[in-house]
Design goal:
Blueprint: E1 2-5, H1 8-19, E2 27-33, E3 36-44, E4 50-57, H2 63-76, E5 81-87, H3 91-100, E6 103-112, E7 115-123
Parallel strand pairs: 4-5
Antiparallel strand pairs: 1-2, 2-3, 3-4, 5-7, 6-7
Length: 143
């Protein structure tokens, strides 16, 4: 069974273990399968206009998780843009970002431990995931 959580103390270490970095101050949305974390997104560096996101998945992403991960910044925080940074060595994550609709903005040479750091951005008007899945209202991202 798939469930969702917004418990940052649970989501942050899981995402950071897969995406790199250390948990700091932020917000997270996690996806669990049979009680085990299998996906998550962390948000930080909110400045009113944009926010940084860090995504990790060990399971195929669900429509509900896609809705939740974009609804929070675009609808609840009312940001214009979500920014993600991915190592050039992580080809799967770079493909996934492009499939979601993130657009390449910059390549920062030698800025990742294993290569370049690629910056992507998604603008609210380009996000196709803000429709409520299955026509049903979605409550808070908690289990």
């Amino acid at each position: 069974m798939i469930s969702y959580t917004s418990d940052y103390s649970e989501v942050a270490p899981w995402v950071c273990a897969r995406a790199g970095g250390e948990p700091g101050v932020g917000t997270g949305i996690g996806m669990k399968k049979d009680g085990e974390m299998v996906g998550g997104v962390l948000y930080d560096n909110f400045n009113g206009a944009s926010i940084m996101a860090h995504i990790a998945l060990d399971h195929p992403v669900t429509k509900r998780l896609l809705f939740l991960m974009f609804d929070y910044p675009f609808t609840q925080l009312n940001v214009n843009a979500i920014i993600i940074a991915i190592s050039s060595a992580n080809t799967a994550a770079n493909r996934f970002a492009s499939k979601l609709g993130f657009k390449l903005q910059a390549t920062l040479k030698k800025s990742a431990p294993d290569g370049d750091l690629i910056l992507y951005q998604m603008l609210r008007e380009n996000c196709r995931f803000l429709e409520v899945p299955h026509g049903k209202a979605i409550g808070p991202a908690t289990t």
